[in-house]
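Kindly go through one protein, given below as sequence and tokens. The question is how this chain folds according to its tokens.

***
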Amino acid sequence: MPKLTVEGVGTFEVPEGKRLVLALREEAGIDQLHACGGNAKCTTCRVEFVSGEPGMITKAEKELLKTKGLSGVRLSCQLACENDMEVRAISRLRDTERKDCGSMPTPEIVPAPEWVEKES
């Protein structure tokens, strides 16, 4: 089982292939935002990688980050826990005035992932 370390929270074993956004909520127990329901439409589920960042990225994530002019972050809704990783949870409900984190994402990455190499 991959280990997910959330800076300032702890280290957790996560089922291999589980969406990072769900692992943050369910295993780490944090209030990770996912306003669009984990569909790569809003960027509220952003995380920063400390280590273990995957080298692949979905086309949906790549295009959305480019459109929003974001760099140095990844969308937790577009990542699967397939190896040990350490992240900084930077998009949390406690830091907003939202009433909730958003509708719960499905177990599968949405839209269906088309993987491409992440550019450095």
User: Anything to note?
Assistant: Residues 30 and 87 are 12 Å apart (CA to CA).
